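Section handout 9: paired folding examples.
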Amino acid sequence: EAVQQEHTLLYQQHILPATIRAALVKVEGLELDGGEATVESILEHAPDELLAEVYDACAGASGLVEEDQKN
């Protein structure tokens, strides 16, 4: 269980934000906290569900097709 908690913490604090920062260039048509959303405002203020959706889209655009990811 401790390993799982450490994995979750690493994912939340490092992997997710690094992946989003590397892949997401611009956000259009989304407002957070009364202003236009930016990469940083999404990371700081977006609900967990939105963060997960953005991460999935960014990770999916990493250039590896599903077959390559398995290898």
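Moving on to protein 2 of 2.
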Amino acid sequence: GRMRGEIVTAYIVFNKDSKHDGSFDEALKHVKQELSLSVSRFAVPRSYVTLDSLPVTKLGKVDITALMNVK
């Protein structure tokens, strides 16, 4: 279970080739809106971090330790 005081964080990499015609802020607003409609209220991220790419380990898996150090 979740520990008290944990904050759900979403790490977002926007596709540079996407055809989204709005601003970055509009795209992020859309992501937040879609999440609020598709996951339980307690699972909606309270923190959003945008990245150019996800950090990966030598084996090509998402490097969770590196994500936790992203500011």
